[in-house]
Amino acid sequence: MQILDENPREHAFLPLRFVERWVKAAKEENIAEARKGNASFLAAYRRAKGRPERLTENWHEARERFLKKEIAAIKLSGEHLFDRKGRPTRRHLSMILWAFSPRAALLQAYWRNPAESSIALFENPFPSFGRRGSMEPKAVVLLRFAYFAKDRAEHVLDLARRDLEEIGARVSLHEEDDGEIEVIARVSDTASEKVVQMWARGFTAGRL
User: Which ranges of the chain have pLDDT less than 50?
Assistant: First the structure.
């Protein structure tokens, strides 16, 4: 999914089942969209059974207006989309209720399988985030490629930077003596290490 597109025709839709996972959290944060009930975009998305093509043109236009306004505010302020505990911010939750996330791949990495899709994970998905989990900078190998697949490695590098630099990871390429190319994320706390490992597993499984 695209991130903070300048002029997309329409922002990509999160699957309905994924949006539903964040509804309780949005209500607990008293997000305005979560209080609208049957008048909300989410209610319309449910009636459409999660199929964007079944939404009315009015809903498509309303969604684009809302998302463009929020994205402009993010660009202007430079604000982060996750708090220090790894949770989506209020603005981020608002966009999720409109079936969009500027960090969709990272969100989906958090929820990479049904066994982890519980509000308990949301409430404190990375309890050691920050000083408590601090460690010496560590290099985590995300993926390896043969020397002839450098273009693919560079593509993955761009995706990883897009998603993981939000949490402070520094992503780069490293060429081994045998010709293999590694995509490496350098992290400085145990929570960030867990996130990049989740990202790598999600990418390998084709979920990102």
Answer: 1-7, 113-134, 207-208
65-100: b (≥16 Cβ within 10 Å) or e = ebbeebbeebeeeeeebbeeebbbeebbbbbbbbbb
DSSP 8-class letter at 44: H
Give the domain ranges of the chain: 16-123, 131-204
Q: What is the mean pLDDT of the chain?
A: 76
Contact by Cβ (8 Å): 82, 167: yes
Question: Class of the 16-123 domain?
Answer: mainly alpha
- CATH number corresponding to 131-204: 3.30.1370
Give the DSSP H or E segment for 151: helix 150-164
Is 208 within 8 Å of 199 (Cβ atoms)?
yes
Note the pLDDT tens digit of each residue in 162-189.
778 767 788 888 887 667 888 888 887 7
